């Protein structure tokens, strides 16, 4: 008798030596990418380079077009065989990840230590950022418009930075506080330096502002080093974006090396897999597009976020160039989209917070999430069953492992993605991506198997020939 029950299976149970090698080889390339691309700008630069190498340009007379916005968001499209009004296939992902941003007046010095003040970006658990090596990535724009790229702390010969944690000997009061009280945002100050600037004697006598400089000798030394390295002065930090991120490379995790630990996998694992899939499908039936947005972690606001008009402008340009006679609305309504974002896998140590029948198991394939939101599906894009059935069908044809899940127990939290910003156009859209352990932590964990099959799922979506 046919087994009528449904259950998912670990990809590892079905894999063999050959398929494991394929997955591992892909993972090695990903580890390189995720180790290098730690900001939205670095991510967009990487994607742009890959696309330009594949002959994408801003020229709408060609069939392969790429547009970027402020170096932080990117849209690329490849013309399909069918006309636009029959549909297009789009995958979105976001380039930004939680981190610590320098404030605009960051530098201070007290009790023998020079620090930078920060304002955290996105949903972090503050204690996870203490007592660990940090790197600084970012840009400073000088008054004359010159852009200076900053990256310190990634090479073995570079120094790193850190935020100290309180010693247990003095943590008695803190231990009795709630987490939100115990870890204050204004204590997330990053150590930048320690040694003071000593002015040479003969210079001292000539220098009128000597007393001013000596008021903050450690800060002065930090500024001197920044100036010799990057040609910037303190005022240039007003027009800078400097991000403190976990220092060092991604690593394979576990004796079997079947997991990947890295910072920023939410959502750069989807940026990478969507980009790879997009580049692999060279003659799609339907037009294929990717859009990488910034600012997802702070509500998708801002000119480079999903609530901006960037995507719309790109689509308007595309319709003008390729199918003037069709209305904007008609094309948008015919679209099919995947909001590629990570999902939370059941944590072995926090299983009670997940409703297991409807949660993602790491290694069981990319996770489809029909609805996000919280407390009665509030704020959700709830994908239509017709669309879910269509996806089931294309994945079944290519034997893509996948699973369906929702985030956490009902009324115990929840989350949102950019899906609703695509849904406003009336197109079909659903969330799909690999699930992570320790999401938003400085060391998020993904499965090598889920990584590979997310790319395969996205490729299958781009390759689909029928609606
Ligand atoms: Mn995300
Ligand atoms: Mn996130």
Return the CATH architecture of the largest domain.
3-Layer(aba) Sandwich
| SS elements, strand count | 19
Poorly predicted residue ranges = none
Highest-level CATH class of the largest domain: Alpha Beta
Report how far the terminal alpha carbons are from each other: 32 Å
Outline:
This protein has 467 residues and is α/β, with parallel strands linked by helices. It has helices at 11-14, 17-36, 40-53, 172-175, 179-182, 201-206, 210-215, 217-230, 265-280, 310-322, 328-333, 385-397, 419-423, 448-463, and strands spanning 64-69, 73-78, 88-94, 99-110, 113-121, 134-141, 147-152, 190-193, 240-246, 251-253, 259-262, 287-293, 336-340, 343-344, 367-369, 403-404, 428-433, 435-436, 444-447. The chain has two domains: 11-97 and 263-463, 3-Layer(aba) Sandwich (Aminopeptidase); 99-246, Aminopeptidase i, Domain 2.
Describe the protein's architecture and organization.
This protein has 467 residues and is of the alpha/beta class. The chain has two domains: 11-97 and 263-463, Zn peptidases (Aminopeptidase, 3-Layer(aba) Sandwich); 99-246, Aminopeptidase i, Domain 2, CATH 2.30.250.10. The protein contains 14 helices and 19 strands. The protein has helices at residues 11-14, 17-36, 40-53, 172-175, 179-182, 201-206, 210-215, 217-230, 265-280, 310-322, 328-333, 385-397, 419-423, 448-463; strands at residues 64-69, 73-78, 88-94, 99-110, 113-121, 134-141, 147-152, 190-193, 240-246, 251-253, 259-262, 287-293, 336-340, 343-344, 367-369, 403-404, 428-433, 435-436, 444-447. The chain has an eight-stranded mixed sheet with strand order 1-2-12-3-13-17-15-16, sandwiched between helices. A six-stranded antiparallel sheet has the order 7-6-9-4-5-8. A three-stranded antiparallel sheet has the order 10-11-19. A hairpin with a 5-residue loop joins strand 6 and strand 7 (147-152). Helix 2 (17-36) crosses helix 14 (448-463) and helix 9 packs across helix 14. The radius of gyration is 24 Å and the shape is globular. The two termini are 32 Å apart. The model has no long low-confidence stretch (mean pLDDT 95). The protein binds manganese (II) ion (2 copies). One manganese (II) ion is lined by residues 266, 297, 440.
